[in-house]
Write a structure and sequence with these properties.
The protein is mainly α. Helix 1 crosses helix 3 and helix 2 crosses helix 3. The radius of gyration is 17 Å and the shape is elongated. It starts with a helix and ends with a helix.
Amino acid sequence: MLLSKKKVGRRIADQRRLAGLSQAELAEELGVATETVSRLETGAAMPSFDRIVSVAAALEVELHDLFRLRPRDSPEDRAMERLIWLMSRRTATDIDLVTGIAANIFDHIRKGAV
């Protein structure tokens, strides 16, 4: 699959939204104009490797997250991506706590549905 500017731009925009940042906030983190972020996200410009590394760092994502181009358009996929993004910023203790709470909730739902 050929890597296109639009696909990379779409991933940058998706990750920016998951991070809860506006284009202006990301631009400030990167030290560039808001228009530069807009051009990157729309595919009007292909960022240099150094810029992509900076974007990944500003969004607190792994570099490969900006290149994962398989479509994930279902509500479940979007929810899962948001959950992974949120949990990736937590400690193991926090993740264990959330997992335990979720397991209890799902167990309660399952028992109530039977």
